[in-house]
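Quick illustration for those who missed Monday's session on complexes.
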Amino acid sequence: MQRSQDKPIVAGNWKMNKNARESIEFFQGFLREITEETEQSQFILFPQNINLLAAKQVLGSTKVGWGAQNCYPKESGAFTGETSPQALSEVGAQYCLIGHSERRTIFQESDEFIADKLVTLQSWGVTPVLCIGETKEQRDQGKTEEVLKNQLEIGLSKNRIECPLMIAYEPVWAIGTGDVATPEQAGLAHKFIRSELATKYTEDYANQTVIMYGGSVKPDSSKALFAQEHVDGFLVGGASLEVSSFIAIYKNS
Ligand code: PEP
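Prediction with phosphoenolpyruvate bound:
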């Protein structure tokens, strides 16, 4: 997926919310509002894995993107409770979040483990959405760029540049706190990420890679954030749970 010049890509991370009925109601309600295919293709939804089949049923014939919140970096095997990129690919998931701060902190996932997920997803044709971001303490210590650089360096160490990739800059202190980054903070971090991609790969590669901002985005904050040159869209948690606020983030931008 590539940035359309004038509208953001808006992705909804539902985390461990919504059962099958609620997911289907959301998908149907969303499709009643967003009927244009060009607009549909600006959105991505990440339900719980158990509801991916419901996503396929309702969204499978539309341009709305959908995918998983997590996977395990192996094709198959004795990994009880995990989901393989192969199974995600087969069900039709186009995207998978990796490196979300909740997985880094609650499940102690390392950058190396995330790098393995990234390349396994790519080998199955599923686009990884690599989430990176600094904690409040790291920002206060002036270490934001150092943290982002390190997460990119290791997280992308196995990246296959011929495969699609998306990045989400999600400052940990902004996730689920209501404490959204200022447009300037987001703009600077996104510019840094873009320049790291250009240095590591090429300018073209950097420009083609969608970089979303995530962290307490609401309909009233999206416009100023999207006005920043390097903010291509949003990864939204709380405000993605209601059709109206999810769509308003897009429409207001
Ligand atoms: C997220 O979990 O990715 C997120 C950005 O959550 P919220 O919008 O609720 O801060």
